[in-house]
TrEMBL record:
<dbReference type="InterPro" id="IPR004552">
    <property type="entry name" value="AGP_acyltrans"/>
</dbReference>
<dbReference type="InterPro" id="IPR036412">
    <property type="entry name" value="HAD-like_sf"/>
</dbReference>
<dbReference type="Pfam" id="PF12710">
    <property type="entry name" value="HAD"/>
</dbReference>
<dbReference type="Pfam" id="PF01553">
    <property type="entry name" value="Acyltransferase"/>
</dbReference>
<keyword id="KW-1208">Phospholipid metabolism</keyword>
<comment type="similarity">
    <text>Belongs to the 1-acyl-sn-glycerol-3-phosphate acyltransferase family.</text>
</comment>
<keyword id="KW-0012">Acyltransferase</keyword>
<dbReference type="InterPro" id="IPR023214">
    <property type="entry name" value="HAD_sf"/>
</dbReference>
<dbReference type="GO" id="GO:0016020">
    <property type="term" value="C:membrane"/>
</dbReference>
<dbReference type="InterPro" id="IPR006385">
    <property type="entry name" value="HAD_hydro_SerB1"/>
</dbReference>
<keyword id="KW-0808">Transferase</keyword>
<dbReference type="InterPro" id="IPR002123">
    <property type="entry name" value="Plipid/glycerol_acylTrfase"/>
</dbReference>
<keyword id="KW-0444">Lipid biosynthesis</keyword>
<dbReference type="GO" id="GO:0003841">
    <property type="term" value="F:1-acylglycerol-3-phosphate O-acyltransferase activity"/>
</dbReference>
<feature type="domain" description="Phospholipid/glycerol acyltransferase">
    <location>
        <begin position="307"/>
        <end position="421"/>
    </location>
</feature>
<dbReference type="GO" id="GO:0006654">
    <property type="term" value="P:phosphatidic acid biosynthetic process"/>
</dbReference>
<protein>
    <recommendedName>
        <fullName>1-acyl-sn-glycerol-3-phosphate acyltransferase</fullName>
        <ecNumber>2.3.1.51</ecNumber>
    </recommendedName>
</protein>
């Protein structure tokens, strides 16, 4: 089964909160084992003693064949958290998610979670990890229900002991069953997803189990039972190939910029320089990176110009993608910080980009004033209405600036929806991955009859348009 089949199964199946979708965490929602990041953080900060390190290594070498093995391993690991407050661990979980774990999120898992949410299903993350390791991700994904291994807490401070039984193997299966009984869930219409053989019982609690990225044990079980198998693209650690591709892509971009500047100088035209850079730079750089851009609705990029083009910001790769789609006669609005970027700062300034200080509303509004004149003079403008890049592909709340500019200039809004750019270049990464970025240029939106009184409602409709497009990607005609 591929991801599109899995998504279609959810869309066409039973709807409503009586149907649940249970997701394992490590290996299913995120690539790898999130606990390693917590352990590495303590190790690098000097908070892991020789006894703790030796015990963890010994239990790791023994393996976790039985539930007693896992409980012994969990007791060793969680003992290290004794004396720390819950808030400290929540803060650590948030920091590690933002700096590392979010970059290991499977986009396919996010799509599945979103499909279940759009179907009105009750979505649950179930893991043998502690809540502190999962909470930041569940918040980012908008998942309200989390099943986890409980840790003993007294007066807000951890004792270092597990409070009852861990959610491993039968423990996770029992927790899923108890949740269904408590919340009135129909197991006959519900779904479950996991990657490990130890979760066979957990998967069997619902009528729609799916082995996602299965290990050998689970793959054998799935084949025997006829369960569908779903594989996500491995994340892994970028290697030499990604390093070479990245260097080539940046080199190609720099070469294209100098070529464009040279052509502009020969012709005595800044416009020639800009158009040469915009046409040559993205083509060369993306090709060298091994990144293909697949566009649906390309005609909408030219249907009504000038326009305010808005896009969902996922990656530093987005400006290259937008340049490839829009080609010419546009400029942009960007955050003030990027003006100091040694590579993109000078290039964006040469392209007439307006830089906005997001920390000062008064200055930001003043900076956007000339943008209206730019539109009236015939040059389109590109803006990310979310204001900042998200750690997940989920759509954040849109700010009003882009829409007010369009209303004042009397030009339409054209939504550009980008899918997968964060997978090619994650927010905190510097290395490019090869692959395909999908782009949908949607129909222009006439804002001529919008008023300040109903602006919020219109913006909410546009946000929903983005969520719907990401949840059910349009097919090229």
């Amino acid at each position: 089964m591929n991801i599109e089949t899995a998504l279609e199964r959810v869309r066409t199946g039973p709807q409503g909160p009586e149907t649940a979708a249970f997701f394992d965490f490590d290996g299913t929602i995120v690539h790898g084992f999130s606990g390693l990041h917590f352990f590495r953080d303590r190790l690098l900060s000097g908070n892991v003693g020789a006894t703790e390190l030796a015990a963890a290594m010994l239990n790791g070498m023994r393996g976790t064949e039985t539930e007693d093995d896992f409980d012994r391993f969990a007791a060793t690991v969680f003992k290290a958290w004794r004396g720390h407050s819950e808030q400290e661990l929540y803060d650590l979980g948030n920091r590690l998610f933002m700096s590392t774990i979010a970059g290991h999120l499977y986009p396919e898992a996010w799509q599945l979670v979103g499909a279940h949410q759009n179907a009105g299903h009750t979505v649950v993350i179930a893991s043998s990890a502690s809540r502190y390791q999962i909470q930041a991700c569940s918040d980012a994904l908008g998942v309200d229900h989390v099943l986890y291994t409980p840790l003993e807490v007294r007066d807000g401070v951890l004792t270092g002991r597990v409070d009852g039984r861990s959610l491993w193997r039968s423990g996770k299966a029992r927790a899923a069953r108890a949740f269904m009984d408590t919340h009135g869930i129909d197991s006959d219409t519900s779904y479950s997803y996991s990657n490990g053989g130890e979760d066979a019982g957990f998967l069997a609690e619902t009528a729609n189990p799916t082995a996602t990225n299965p290990d050998r044990t689970l793959q054998r079980i799935a084949l025997e039972k006829g369960w569908p198998i779903l594989r996500f693209r491995p994340r892994g650690t970028p290697g030499a190939k990604e390093l070479v591709r990245t260097a080539a892509a940046y080199g190609g971009l720099i070469g294209s910029v100098w070529t464009g500047l040279g052509l502009g100088l020969l012709n005595g035209s800044r416009k020639v320089a800009l158009e040469s850079i915009l046409n040559l730079g993205p083509e060369v750089s993306l090709a060298l990176a091994g990144i293909d851009v697949r566009v649906v609705g390309q005609a909408n990029a030219w249907a009504t110009r000038p326009a305010v083009f808005i896009f969902n910001h996922q990656s530093q790769l987005d400006p290259m993608i937008l340049a490839k789609v829009l080609r010419k006669d546009f400029t942009g609005v960007a955050k003030q910080e990027i003006a100091h970027d040694p590579l993109f700062g000078p290039l964006l300034r040469f392209g007439g980009v307006t830089f906005v200080d997001r920390g000062n509303t008064e200055r930001a509004v003043a900076a956007l004033g000339p943008v209206v004149e730019t539109l009236r003079e015939g040059t389109s403008v590109v803006i990310a209405p979310e204001g900042t890049r998200s750690l997940t592909p989920a759509i954040g709340g849109f700010k009003k600036g882009a829409f007010r500019i369009a209303i004042e200039a009397g030009v339409p809004i054209v939504p550009i929806v980008i899918r997968n750019s964060g997978e090619m270049l994650w927010k905190h990464s510097t290395l490019l991955r090869s692959g395909t970025v999908d782009v949908a240029v949607l129909d222009p939106i006439d804002v001529g009859d919008w008023s300040p009184d109903d602006l919020g409602d219109h913006i909410a409709e546009v946000e929903d348009l983005y969520r719907h497009t990401l949840g059910r990607w349009p097919v090229a005609p």
